[in-house]
What we know:
Helix content: 10-25%
CATH topology: paralog of FGE (formylglycine-generating enzyme)
CATH class: Alpha Beta
Number of strands: 13
Number of domains: 1
Strand content: 15-25%
Largest sheet: 4 strands, mixed
Amino acid sequence: MTRLALATALSALVVAGCGAKATGPAARACPAQPGGEVQLAGGEVILGAAGLHPEEGPPRAVAVGPFSIDRTEVTNDQFAEFVAATGYVTMAERAPDPDLYPGVPPEALKPSSLVFVGADAKADGDPAHWWRVVDGANWRHPEGPDSSIRGLGRHPVVHIGYEDALAYARWRGRDLPTEAEWELAARGGLQGKTYEWGDTPPVPDAPRANTWQGVFPAVDTADDGYRAQTAPVGCFAPNGLGLSDMSGNVWEWTRDWYLPGHEHGDTGPDADLAIDPADGTPKHVIKGGSFLCSDDFCLRYRPAARQAGPPDTGSSHIGVRTVRRGQEAGSPPSG
């Protein structure tokens, strides 16, 4: 599914996001920004879960080799360093290839990306009222051409497609995590628990992550300090492995193709295995949920949660973190 198709058919991202536009600055004080990465020995992880969303199960054991993973999601400052060094232009900043859109008027093929624009009531079930393809929206202008990332250098970069995420990772001599690597890291050393911190749901006076509180999609009470917006990375307590924002804030790309039929695992380069019967296109797995995930709607900020991400489409709530495989830690991100 492409950016233009998503203008009218947003079902893949409806369950990936749930919320309304930010109305004020963050109220939560953040500790110093974590840096570097965490080296993990690997091992066996029970991937998936049973009983909540069908695409998460059945649970199965997967062996994971040693790898290092960024402590935080990639920030705007870190991505800007990459762009300054390479001149890279993201997918959202390029006009779509006319050859991929036969019959579409040239004037409709503009650089654009998906922006969550909110909804007035929980009863509004039309995703076209929640999301909009906005001309000029990209990582530098997250809500459109009149917005900017000034003052948001520590926030996670968004509006990057799979190709953009992989290009950044390769520039750093790293890769995108597999779903199994990501989930092992997100579980924080705990097996079989609902959340990265255990089985106890978060409570309003002790938020664990940047998620949606209140009645989705009409009211975000912002008990976590952020009303329907990203938070600076590392604002919430890390998990048991020292990793921040593995729950909420932004969804994160993995390198795995999203397979139909509840299957999990690294499928390598074979996109033919991952064709979505709904629209005939392959998709990658995204993990971790976002600031738009609510307990009363999607509850997808759990380690087992997974969603299909169209690889050519960025949005205002999808970001990335990187890995390096092997025993030696790779280069830490700057900033």
